[in-house]
Amino acid sequence: MESTLKEMRGGESVLDLSPKATVGGGVEDVYGEDCATEEQLVTPWTYSVASGYSLLRDPHHNKGLAFTEKERDSHYLLGLLPPAVVTQQLQEKKLMDNLRKYQVPLQKYMAMMELQERNERLFYKLLIDNVEELLPIVYTPTVGEACQKYGSIFRRPQGLYISLKEKGKVLDVLKNWPERNIQVIVVTDGERILGLGDLGCQGMGIPVGKLSLYTALGGVRPSACLPVTIDVGTNNEQLLKDEFYIGLRQRRATGQEYADLLHEFMSAVKQNYGEKVLIQFEDFANHNAFTLLAEYGTTHLVFNDDIQGTASVVLAGVVAALKLIGGTLADHKFLFLGAGEAGTGIAELIALEMSKQTEIPVEETRKKIWLVDSKGLIVNSRKESLQHFKKPWAHDHEPVKDLLGAVKAIKPTVLIGSSGVGRTFTKEIIETVASFNEKPLIMALSNPTSQSECTAEEAYTWSQGRAIFASGSPFDPFEYNGKVFVPGQANNAYIFPGFGLGLVISGAIRVHDDMLLAASEALAKQVSDENYNKGLIYPPFSNIRKISANIAANVAAKAYELGVATRLPRPANLVKYAESCMYSPVYRSYRMDRRHWCLTIPFSLLLHNQQRKIANEI
Ligand SMILES: O=C([O-])CC(=O)C(=O)O
Ligand SMILES: [Mg+2]
């Protein structure tokens, strides 16, 4: 009985004893049952959806004008819609026409959020079919501005808010979420949103945006995704004074109080969803990001996107770029501006890959990699005062106070910006790097666009068209001396959706560095000669579902190899399996059929009785 209740909730049921509509089977039904959780394997073979007015208000099932005459008749919709019946394609065309009329990206963002709340399938259809155009709207850079203004643009809450007020009740808060079969959680505490700093509770835009990409780019069902914001206060004075601020109006809790709330959250997640739910940490400040990953990496399925996802995507770009700049990984010398989550995470994964390729110990390969932070080059004489995650990067060298000095002293072949501070790759710095490299690899990773270390135009112009350039936020193609250069987007969006899908389909219970290398390798392999000819070191996002399936397959294969996969037996063809598991946003047809109706009613009654029983127990 208990399982029936779970299944019906997982099956998006509503408690309604009026005649039920059933949803015809489709690929994603198979996904829900075959690829989701064990419990779902026994899901009743009919889903119930709301009818009438509530069906039009239910974003999971609403199709608007695309409801057919038959569906309108059988689902009590007659008169509730104007007479025209249109296809999903026509709806898509109209929405794209409307979106393109907005001049301001934030208006497009708000229109997309409204669509997500009104008609989820159409939202994902639009996003998947127009990914290159819409990614910068629902994701970086526009999502950054949306977070900054979240208090004013806030309409309906999305995701789950867990604040200090809920201390001791976090499990109850999780139970308030309507979906039961959660596979991926993205959680932030809002302290370091992109390169924009502490945005407190308004950071919610990030987990919401990342999870939209989990579905659109990685094919994880929307109902299996849970965005969470942990609100422990904010140190952002402007927000604390803002009358429209939506979060706790207090300074950030730290130390034991912070650790206790996080611990309660992590325990409640495991208790409520089991050990196969992926918890992705996003945009935590350095001091907490490393601690949380170390603390929960051995007990939970956790992944830090800023440390590990960014590392994997940048390693893929560097490996792909070798075709253009020549040499092996170990032939290159790397210099980073920024020694936080992204910088040290990328550095470590590059050192690890170098070590695997050369069989030289990682302690040695690290010496090819240099990092600069706000106090200058990280060198041995600074070791005592360095934060623990910077210590492995302290090499023998005399002190150097800034990036320009470090560029001159180290003479890197690869320059990577991960400091969160915009416009720090100056003309002099790029000209200096270009003076001793035929083809310097320059990666300006900080987000959003305002925080990028340099623009695409600057990188190409100041290197006289010789730089291989990629950036965290998107830049338009740029023409220099008659040649069009297309900058690649070195953004973890290439990695996390496929990476997460790989964990989900294999039922992995732990993340391992080798899986990050596997994801990276799969991504680098997707770059074609046509891409290279344009100076690209990443494949276009328009192929992202295929890329994600390949990443997922490589990650899942590694999970099986490492013995951390629980979904047995291992599917023979993991790429095909990953593809077959992906959510499709195409509308499902709803039918009314006596056979189903008869079967649906008893389930509903059982559910109804079960709910009543629970209510009595409470
Ligand atoms: O969200 C993005 O675009 C990439 C990312 O994780 C960050 O900058 O923190
Ligand atoms: Mg991030």
From TrEMBL:
CDD domains: NAD_bind_1_malic_enz. It catalyses: oxaloacetate + H(+) = pyruvate + CO2; (S)-malate + NADP(+) = pyruvate + CO2 + NADPH. Coiled coil: none annotated. The active site is at 139 (proton donor), 210 (proton acceptor). Keywords: Metal-binding, NADP, Oxidoreductase. GO terms for cellular component: chloroplast. Residues 116-297 form the Malic enzyme N-terminal domain. A divalent metal cation binds at residues 282-283, 306. (S)-malate binds at residues 192, 447, 491. Divalent metal cations. Prefers magnesium or manganese. InterPro entries: Aminoacid_DH-like_N_sf, Malic_enzyme_CS, Malic_N_dom, Malic_N_dom_sf, Malic_NAD-bd, Malic_OxRdtase, NAD(P)-bd_dom_sf. GO terms for biological process: malate metabolic process. It comes from the Eukaryota. GO terms for molecular function: malate dehydrogenase (decarboxylating) (NADP+) activity; metal ion binding; NAD binding. Its cofactor is Mn(2+); Mg(2+). Residues 307-560 form the Malic enzyme NAD-binding domain. Belongs to the malic enzymes family. This is Malic enzyme. It comes from Gossypium stocksii.
